[in-house]
């Protein structure tokens, strides 16, 4: 039996919780003790009483939850949580270590075994990243349409145009889960959408399905031309575990019309737009070259009920497997969890993450 701790999230505007009561019940039925920090689920609409009814124990402090064998949370630990790190602790959450080398160093120094949702792969898919990418992709068109309003500093362009007036032009960089959902939503608002990717097969599929109205193979020239004429750019390029590739250069953004909008959904991994820097839900935007930038690092956190249910359902089987055999997970004996292991035995063990961190250190 393992003790599994569920902690309250501290990141700005973050109201998700890693496990809902249904997932807590699953773990309890498998013989594990589940400790939930008091109030951890309230932001997502789950009361402490629901966790108690599921067999979990409500603990009064973060320290008690962090004292578990395995701590499960949503977002990467903040600096004020890192004093809870210790040897023998297993941590399972979104880490995005390629973009936060200081966190990687803290995990290594403390001897924590750290597993990342975003690098867990099964049959070439990313099953724990996918549900949050879907939510983020669905949110992007809503955000972009709002930010185009002149009241938000936008150009005052209506996404779908009007009779005799052209619709907005949108460019989506990367047609993975997040980019595809963003493109679908933008098309649903009647924008003209150009999809950009390196995969010709994916581009062809998106065009045939009507997800985009035009396609481009990614290159500096094609991206620059498309972005310069865009009202909205959504960045969704991804390399699992590594820093996001910079696809949109600063001169591309500088060529955009003032009041245009950039939404960089890849910002957790460093961003794929050169002018993007992390923002928060309480201060989500800024202007660069007259273009409104939205680069919130926890986009799904503003829809916590939906996002929590989707994330919890996806991670619950892996949490159970990790709780039942932490050493097997760490040593690569459990399918899926081997790819999730980012830090173990006092070193970074995920190849892509390690390479990204070495690149950051080399450029410092």
Describe the structure in your own words:
Helices cover 35% and strands 16% of the residues. It has 364 residues and is of the alpha/beta class. It has two domains: 3-120 and 304-363, Rossmann fold; 130-301, NAD(P)-binding Rossmann-like Domain (Rossmann fold, 3-Layer(aba) Sandwich). The chain has an eight-stranded mixed beta sheet, sandwiched between helices. A seven-stranded mixed beta sheet has the order 9-8-7-10-11-13-12, sandwiched between helices. Helix 1 runs parallel beside helix 10 (304-324) and helix 5 (130-147) runs parallel beside helix 6. The longest helix has 21 residues, at 304-324. The protein is globular, with a radius of gyration of 21 Å. 53% of the residues are buried.
Task: Identify the overall geometry.
Answer: globular
Number of domains: 2
**First-to-last CA distance:** 44 Å
Please identify which CATH superfamily of the largest domain we are dealing with.
NAD(P)-binding Rossmann-like Domain
* Beta-strand residue percentage: 15-25%
């Amino acid at each position: 039996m393992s003790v599994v701790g569920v902690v309250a999230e501290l990141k700005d505007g973050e109201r998700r919780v890693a496990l809902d009561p249904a997932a807590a019940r699953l773990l309890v039925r498998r013989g594990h003790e589940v400790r939930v920090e008091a109030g951890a689920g309230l932001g997502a609409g789950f009361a402490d009483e629901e966790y108690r009814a599921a067999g979990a124990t409500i603990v009064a402090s973060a320290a008690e939850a962090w004292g578990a064998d395995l701590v499960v949370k949503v977002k990467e630990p903040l600096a004020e949580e890192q004093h809870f790190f210790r040897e023998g602790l297993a941590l399972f959450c979104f880490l995005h270590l390629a973009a936060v080398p200081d966190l990687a160093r803290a995990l290594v120094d403390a001897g924590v075994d750290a597993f990342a949702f975003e690098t867990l792969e099964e049959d070439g898919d990313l099953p724990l990243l996918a549900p949050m990418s879907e939510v983020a992709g669905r949110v992007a068109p809503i955000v972009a349409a709002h930010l185009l309003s002149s009241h938000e500093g936008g150009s005052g362009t209506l996404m779908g145009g009007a009779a005799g007036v052209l619709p907005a032009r949108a460019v989506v960089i990367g047609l993975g889960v997040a980019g595809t959902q963003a493109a679908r939503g933008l098309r649903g608002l009647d924008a003209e959408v150009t999809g950009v990717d390196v995969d010709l097969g994916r581009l062809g599929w998106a065009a045939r399905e009507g997800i985009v109205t035009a396609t481009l193979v990614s290159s500096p020239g094609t991206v620059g031309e498309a972005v310069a004429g865009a009202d909205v750019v959504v960045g969704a390029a991804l390399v699992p575990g590594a820093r996001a590739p910079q696809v949109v250069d600063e001169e591309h953004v500088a060529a955009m019309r003032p009041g245009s909008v950039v939404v960089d959904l890849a910002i957790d991994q460093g961003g794929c737009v050169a002018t993007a820097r992390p923002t928060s839900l309480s201060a989500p935007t800024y202007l660069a070259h007259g273009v409104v930038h939205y680069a919130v690092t926890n986009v799904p956190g503003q829809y916590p009920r939906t996002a929590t249910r989707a994330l919890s359902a996806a991670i619950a089987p892996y949490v159970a497997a990790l709780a039942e055999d932490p050493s097997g997970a760490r040593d690569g004996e459990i399918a899926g969890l081997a790819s999730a292991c980012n830090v173990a035995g006092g070193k970074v063990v995920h190849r892509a993450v390690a390479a990204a961190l070495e690149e950051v250190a080399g450029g410092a």
